[in-house]
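The data are quoted verbatim here:
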Amino acid sequence: MRRAIYPGSFDPVTFGHLDIIRRASKIVDELVVGVLNNNSKTPLFSVENRVKMLEEVVRDIPNVKVMSFEGLLVDFAKKIDAQIIVRGLRAVTDFEYELQMSQTNSILDDNIDTIFFTTSLEYAYLSSSTVREAAFYGADISRFVPESVVNQVYERLKDKGEKNE
């Protein structure tokens, strides 16, 4: 079985993430969306909330599974028997960083390969941080994230007492 992992923080999941998930799921038997629990960052949503949001928006893709993880990506890949890491590229700056990570992961475990998907043009500008900033200032984020995520972002900002006019 050809299993891949698409790791990220997904804070929140965007249409750009979903685009990569849908495309990657077509070339593997199983795609695991790995939600990183990174203790050095303060995400808008807890890892449990991010997993639930993702499960909701990928429920129509039968070979996609969502799991959280901590620590090194290659260790998680080994644990779930994934041979492929999927990464999305929006710009040249993404490529430089992702190439370094891919090479590092290859040194840590030469049985795991990384494949890159270039982001569809309609989502090339999009990032979770852009969504959070737009929502912070009260902008309409419905063109950036799935409908089920929109209100959760606004509510979470309100709960944290952050600007959202």
About this structure: The first strand starts at residue 3 and ends at 8. The longest helix spans residues 92-108.
